[in-house]
């Protein structure tokens, strides 16, 4: 569900277009006769970029892999926890996950809890918004073992605020204000990476600030607004939320061209250095973008009539490991001296690699757990094994919401977290209504 703000702004109460990805896009394809086609490719200047070009024969799909009937030989359940019905969960840490808990009242609308993935304890660390007395509610949260970042919004006045706090494994520090804005700007998307809080600020597409730059910002947990800094500037709207790994973050800014072209960008959280880039063909707009064992991964919720092997609906991942190519490169000049120079955006190795497409409508960013690529399917979370060309589906409990089991994890971890909200009336028992969070570990 989305709550509208003044001037057309929206606050996401579900995660990453959850219902749109799982239901809306699929319905669109059916209604449109099986194709959601973006306009034909318009040629523009691409000489300054290594644009992704993958032939159709280089892309295998999930239909080419065999499905295992039983996942028990691949993954073992190491945590099984019940939280209040309607809880939303995010995890990019093997020890703790962020939870947005619903309440039975209008004020507060939600509360923040931290779920300890080893014990299942989930203490509430923010019972109300910092600015509740001014009409604000908590609408989004992320956390790791070092701190939290969350968003508070005043719907009536169209104002958002970004807060963070430190976390030492036991106690959460005092909240500090990092940023605030009006409905001229979209409510920021957020991430926690290392010791930093990250947030992405975009102007409203149809608002008075529409020509302003999009910004990726960061600040150490618990610091003030004065410590906030711009990590990356995009002269045009970024198109995916920041994707959190343990030590880095992925964004999709616009390239510096006349046409609309997006550049997947992997950034070191500590130094701000660009570690790797990949440039998509003109007008191709990913729903999600991330990074994992084999390099960049991304998903489309549309079908394109150009692009050869990278043109269909689904989640794309290189099937073999790609060597990262940082933007800044060290060369030896004519005088025999070494110097740092800016290379071409886009890593040529991606065009020459074999690719895999998980052929389902995407609704969550993918993640890696050990050697397995973890992807949200229609109702289940699936693991893909490139070594055996097989995949498996984790068990889905009876009575789950229409989206089934949801993938809460991002990045590359030793475990993977899934959750489902269950409302189930067995024939011979009491009604079951709760959020089931499960933690899985690969079997070596």
Task: Give the key terms.
mainly beta; five-stranded mixed beta sheet; globular; disordered N terminus
Structure description:
Strand 9 and strand 10 form a beta hairpin. This protein has one helix and 37 strands. With 444 residues, it is mainly beta. It has one helix at 18-31, and strands at residues 2-4, 10-12, 37-38, 59-61, 66-67, 75-83, 88-90, 96-102, 110-116, 124-126, 137-143, 147-154, 159-166, 176-182, 189-193, 196-201, 214-220, 229-234, 243-244, 248-251, 263-268, 274-279, 288-292, 295-300, 303-304, 314-318, 328-332, 338-342, 355-358, 367-369, 372-376, 381-385, 390-393, 406-407, 412-413, 416-424, 432-442. The strands form ten sheets. The chain has a six-stranded mixed beta sheet, with no helix packed on it. The protein has a five-stranded mixed beta sheet with strand order 4-29-26-24-23, with no helix packed on it. The chain has a four-stranded antiparallel beta sheet with strand order 6-37-36-34, with no helix packed on it.
């Amino acid at each position: 569900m989305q709550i509208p703000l003044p001037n057309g702004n929206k606050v996401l109460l579900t995660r990453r277009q959850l219902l749109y990805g799982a239901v809306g896009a699929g319905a669109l394809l059916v209604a449109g006769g099986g194709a959601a086609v973006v306009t034909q490719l318009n040629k523009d200047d691409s000489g300054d970029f290594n644009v992704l070009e993958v032939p159709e024969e280089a892309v295998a799909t999930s239909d080419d892999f065999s499905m295992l009937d039983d996942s028990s030989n691949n993954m073992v359940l190491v945590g099984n926890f019940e939280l209040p019905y309607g809880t939303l969960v995010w995890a990019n840490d093997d020890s703790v996950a962020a939870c947005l808990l619903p309440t039975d009242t209008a004020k507060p609308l939600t509360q923040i809890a931290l779920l300890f993935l080893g014990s299942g304890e989930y203490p509430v660390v923010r019972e109300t918004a910092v600015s509740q007395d001014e009409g604000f509610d908590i609408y989004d949260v992320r956390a790791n073992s070092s701190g939290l970042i969350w968003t508070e919004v005043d719907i009536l006045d169209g104002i958002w605020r970004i807060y963070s706090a430190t976390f030492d494994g036991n106690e959460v520090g005092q909240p500090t204000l990092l940023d605030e804005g009006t409905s001229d700007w979209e409510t920021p998307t957020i991430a926690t990476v290392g010791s930093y809080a990250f947030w992405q600020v975009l102007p409203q597409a149809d608002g008075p600030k529409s020509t302003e730059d999009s910004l990726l910002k960061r600040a150490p947990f618990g610091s003030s607004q004065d410590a906030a800094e711009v990590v990356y500037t995009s002269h045009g709207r970024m198109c995916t939320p920041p994707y959190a790994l343990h030590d880095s973050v992925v964004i999709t800014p616009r390239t510096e061209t006349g046409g609309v072209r997006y550049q997947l960008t992997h950034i070191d959280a500590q130094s701000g250095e660009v570690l790797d880039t990949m440039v998509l063909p003109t007008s191709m707009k990913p729903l999600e973008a991330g990074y994992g064992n084999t390099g960049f991964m991304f998903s489309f919720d549309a079908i394109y009539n150009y692009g050869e092997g990278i043109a269909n609906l689904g989640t794309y991942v290189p099937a073999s490991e790609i060597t990262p190519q940082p933007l800044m490169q060290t060369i030896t000049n004519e005088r025999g001296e070494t110097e740092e120079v800016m290379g071409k955006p886009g890593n040529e190795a991606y065009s020459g690699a074999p690719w895999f497409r998980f052929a389902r409508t995407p609704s969550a960013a993918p993640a890696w757990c050990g050697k397995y690529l973890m992807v949200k399917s229609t109702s289940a979370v699936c693991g893909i094994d490139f070594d055996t060309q097989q995949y498996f589906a984790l068990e889905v409990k009876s009575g789950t919401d229409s989206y089934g089991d949801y993938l809460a994890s991002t990045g590359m971890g030793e475990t993977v977290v899934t959750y489902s909200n269950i409302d189930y009336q067995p024939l011979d028992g009491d009604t079951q209504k709760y959020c089931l969070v499960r933690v899985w570990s690969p079997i070596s």
